[in-house]
Amino acid sequence: LRPAAARVAAASEPELLEWARRAASFDRQAAESLLLAVGPAMVRTIRKVLGPRAPDVEDVLQEASEGLLGALRTFKGECTVRHFACRVSVFTALAWRRTVSFRGGQDLSVATAEAAERSTSRDESPAEEVLRARRREALEMLLDELPAPQAEVLVLHCALDFSIDEIAAAVGRPSETIRSRLRLAKRALRERIGASTELAELLEARS
Amino acid sequence: VIGADRPCPDDLLARARAGGLSELERRALTAHLVNCGACATSAAVAALFREGGDSLPADASIVARVARRAGAQHAAGRRAPRWSGRAFALATVTLLLVTSGALAWVGRQSGGGLRSIFHRRVDAPTRAETDHRSQRRPASVEIAPLPPALDAVVDQPVVSPAKRRPAVARLAGASVREPPTPNAAALFADANATRRRGDLRGAVSLYEVLRRQFPATSEARLSAISMADVLLDLGSPARALDAYGAYLSENASGSLREEALFGRTRCLHALDRGPDELDTWRALVREFPRSAYAPLGRRRIAELQR
């Protein structure tokens, strides 16, 4: 029998580790339970990278889930399973963004903006919605311009509030390397924003 | 503690966003942010990230769908394990040893060693072979020169053999055939990758090829669901309904049965077949009362019964 959804969602770390161990041995039930447990965090992470109403969240989650299950054989438990799943999601979503923008097959920002315009769940004026969409577009552009390792660390830190040690454990790199990547990312962002009046105004409008 | 000559307090920034700072830490961080442009930028970027990433009502069903699909695919992958480099090398060496041993044995049996075997087969055909060949082929078989058009193609500096093959075939008047796909797992992966790239029609074609060429594999069974999802996205509910139906008939207790039933309800709704949709929702809720789709199913049943 499948575990009840609520119990799966509230699974403890030892339970997640056990499911991860069994899923690594191709246990379908364990793989499913694991994905049901960490899936909500993965979706939230993907939405943070791709935008709140990105059209292809399900496809990216599918890819991230396959990536997570495939990586479990090498997972040594140096971080929590949830953190590992979030890291895989960040990596997958960033890679997906870069692939799609490289192909130019789909204008993510337009899709996001249109989706935001369609949204009726927020108590915001149309002008605020447009401003929000433009800020989002600016954020995505900044992310795309960063080297992938720096973008990954920035998202884990700024979007998911991981500490330096947690990022180091999830990424499998020394803390000093993570600190350095974050410092470089912040510097690059500051320079980029400083060079663009529009970006600076957008960020000021937020704060 | 947080001076200009010290590293930036990145962990404090993260904890501040989670609301876990003491008053002293908060003051120190505020003072740092006034003087550190990089951290101020990072705080602004974090605020932008917070504007997205909230859970949406549809997320639960997305997670449920993906968990079932990816779980089933992962388990199916076990049946097609990839060869490790060491195992592949060992198998190759074993095959070479066995082959050379067998050839040597055959050579000894025929009395002339390997050399005599090859010589006999190439240079000295048996009488029966000679008779047979003489009826059908000229005495000396030569490689015919390529027609001029083909020569031109082959002489061109073509980089990729894959690109050259269709050109040669076209000039020769032959039908262009794709190279054979090695196995069901590879074809399934191809189809999924094509779908993710956004080429939905291409993905449907590959799913169809997979189901035709490897009908008895787990990948073929799973592909019915994937293909049906794509067909629904393409606005072909009738074909999608057939694909979901194929999965349900081929897999009476399949792991994606719940998914297939949900897909059927979507198709039947799109086709405006209310009574059939009602029956399918009832079956889904009855068989999977704890499904992520069950609340929606109960609402829809109530609507359809009115």
Query: Structural class, from helix and strand content of chain B?
Result: mainly alpha
Terminal CA distance of chain B: 69 Å
Compressed to H and E, one letter per element, the order of chain B equals HHHHHHHHHHHHHHHH
The biggest chain-chain interface is:
A-B, 63 and 52 residues
Which parts of chain B are unreliable, with pLDDT below 50 for 5 consecutive residues or more? 79-83, 116-179
In terms of DSSP E residues, the strand content of chain B is under 5%
Determine the structural class of chain A based on helices, strands and strand pairing.
mainly alpha
Oligomer: heterodimer
Q: Could you walk me through the main structural features you see in this protein, from its secondary elements to its overall organization?
A:
- The complex is a heterodimer of chains A (207) and B (306).
- Chain A has eleven helices and no strands.
- Chain A is mainly α.
- In chain A, α3 packs across α5, α8 packs across α10 (175-194) and α9 (164-171) packs across α10.
- The termini of chain A are far apart.
- With 306 residues, chain B is mostly helical.
- Chain B has 16 helices and no strands.
- In chain B, 27% of the residues are buried.
- Mean pLDDT of chain B is 72; it is low at 79-83 and 116-179.
- Classes of the chains: A mainly alpha (207), B mainly alpha (306).
- At the A-B interface, α3, α4, α7, α8 and α10 of A face α1, α3 and α4 of B.
Q: SSE layout and pairings?
A:
The complex is a heterodimer of chains A (207) and B (306).
Chain A: H1 5-9, H2 13-24, H3 28-50, H4 57-71, H5 81-103, H6 108-118, H7 126-145, H8 148-159, H9 164-171, H10 175-194, H11 197-206
Chain B: H1 10-17, H2 23-35, H3 37-50, H4 59-77, H5 85-110, H6 113-122, H7 127-136, H8 148-155, H9 161-171, H10 184-196, H11 200-213, H12 218-233, H13 237-250, H14 257-270, H15 274-287, H16 294-305
